[in-house]
Structures are given as C-alpha cells and as structure tokens.
Amino acid sequence: MTQQCRAIVADASGGPEVLGLREVPVPTPGPGQLLFQVAAVGVNFIETYQRDGTYTVLFPFTPGSEAAGTVVAVGEGVEDFAVGDHIATAEGRGCYAEYAIVDQDKALPVPSAVPLDIAAALPLQAMTAHYLMNSTYHVEPGQTVLLHAGAGGVGLLLTQMLKERGARVITTVSTDEKEELSRVAGADEVLRYSGFAAAVRELTDGVGVDVAYDGVGKDTFDGSLASLRTRGMLVLFGGASGQVPPLDLQRLNTGGSLFVTRPTLGSYLLNPQERRWRATEVFNAVAEGRLTARIGARFPLAEAGAAHSALQGRKTTGKVILVP
Ligand code: NDP
After folding, report:
1. Which residues line ligand 1 (CB under 6 A)?
2. What are phi and psi of 212, to 5 degrees?
3. Which atom of ligand 1 is least distant from the CA of 262?
4. Model confidence, pTM
5. What integer pLDDT is reported at residue 1 of this predicted model?
C-alpha cells in the first residue's frame, strides 16, 4: 500500500483559506532525485503570489520551494547524497508537506553546525541577498545603499551582509519594533516610508544612493527612483505592496541616466557552480557566526494559511517557517 503523508493543497487560487491540509501519497524519487523528510519549511512571499493568482500555477497545488530535512530515499543515479544526510533547498517542489522531492543538483548539504530550522530559513532569502549585492549590483565598501523592509526576511540578512562588506545601509520599516531589529542587524539609518526619498537625499548631502533594493514595489518604486544618485541602480526584486505599473523609460533619462532591473533568483542559480558558490558562502557565514538568521514566527504545517496572512499583513519579522 502507498504510504500517506500530510501536505497543504490548494484546489484553486484565492485567499489564505484555500490552503487546506490533506493526506497525500508520499512521493517517490525519480532518477537523480532525493526524497527527504521535511524538518522545517521556509515561507516566502512568492507563495502568496502563487496562491492568490498573481503568478500562474497548476492546481491542485502544493506550495513550497524552500525547506530543510533528512534524506530518506534516493532515486537511481544519485551519487552525491545518501540516506541520513541533512539537506536544504530553495528549489524543491511541494515543500509544504511532511515529505518532499528535490533534484540532487538543487539540494544543498547542510553543515553540521547549522540546525535544520535555521537551514530552512536560509536558502531562498540568503541566496537572494547574496546575488543582489554581489551580482545584480556589486556593492563596494563605502557605497550607500537604500533597502526597503529592513526587518523582513531578505532585509535582515542583506543588511548584515552589506555591513560586513563595509557599505552604508539606509533601511525603511513600518514600526518601532522593526526599527530596533533593523538597527541590531546593522542599519546605519532607519526611516519610515512616508517621505523617505527626501530623507535619503538629506542623509546623502543631496547626492542620492548608489543602489536601491526594493522588494516592496508599488508603494515605494517612485521614491526609490527619486533616491538614486546619477547613474544609480534601482533593483526591483519584489512587490510586497503590489506590482509596479509600466514605466516610462524617459524617467531614467531625466533622473540622471538611471538603471532599473527586475531580477529573480532562478537567473542567478544558473548552474551547479553558481548555486554551490552562493550556498557555501551563506552557510559558512552562519556556521562561523558572521550571519544570523532570525526566525520571527513558527507555524504548524496545518496553519499555512495563517502564516500567509501574517506575512501579507506585515505582522512578521525575519523568517517565517512551517513545522510539519
Ligand atoms: P518580508 O519578510 O520582507 O515581508 C515583506 C515586508 O514588506 C513586510 O514585513 C513589510 O515590512 C514590507 N511591506 C511594505 N509594504 C507592504 C504591504 N503593503 N504589504 C505587505 N508587506 C509590506 O518578505 P521576504 O523577505 O520574504 O520578501 C521580501 C520581498 O522580496 C518580497 O517582495 C519577495 O517577493 C521578494 N523576493 C524576491 C526574490 C527574487 O529573487 N526576486 C527572492 C526572495 C524574495 P514593513 O512592515 O517594515 O514595511
């Protein structure tokens, strides 16, 4: 008889209530794949876009690409991993479940110094922070960076990594509690959203920032563009407040030869070498105590909908995880 396990399944797009807990068959690893028992699932904003129809997915749908756990079976041809190994991934499938599948080339070995719940909090957001500051725009020591949602999952990790690089970091947050967290992560200046572009100009003696990292989107895009120095770059990497409407390219001219890019993690994990480089750097930084992943909230797997509501309702700080 096929073994059963619990998983979150949505039959159609909609609000957080479409995420229901079901019994489903434990998946079987195909050639080159690993089956792992999920210890913790990383919840990410993209799953809210997939759930509510902003991004297209096939239903019935089990969300979740980020998780950590223990390998329990390997498919044909798997040589790099064995049963009992601790792994994490940012590119799994259907990870809102007790068991999930990942291709071996997308599995990341977890160092023994890193607990599995922390390992689940890292791959997607920390590798995002890594590519944003190393590859989309290579931040140099002494440069000034604007980073929105400074107390969020990506925000806290990217702030620490930018400070280790020697950059000056200006963040935005919505509450006093988030301001405190952003400061502890190393932010030099922490602003509220209202009037942030004028405040950034003042803080930079009228010059503007070298790069603005904007994962908030609709509500902040115009201010981010207005915060750049001549030839500065706006990196629009998400839309927590909604998607940005079409842009008149002439604004890049009048703003001072500006750059805008809209990156996504998949384009920065193009091959096993690139994936291994980013993963090794972030896991080593955690193992050596140079980078701290803050788990702001843990929800039981069955409460995935509540986790989405908390994330979309701006109630979370750092990482949100689900525990099967
Ligand atoms: P966060 O933990 O940062 O949560 C989102 C934060 O955005 C909130 O906590 C809130 O912080 C802020 N925010 C501002 N306005 C709103 C609003 N109207 N509704 C909800 N939140 C708002 O999430 P993540 O770290 O998981 O992701 C941050 C962004 O990065 C997302 O847009 C996500 O899609 C994107 N992302 C992109 C990737 C890529 O490769 N392109 C990869 C990973 C994430 P506050 O209350 O302080 O304003």
Report:
1. 44-46, 124-125, 128, 149, 151-155, 173-174, 178, 215-216, 219, 237-241, 263-265, 311-312, 314, 316
2. -115, 125
3. 41
4. 0.96
5. 56
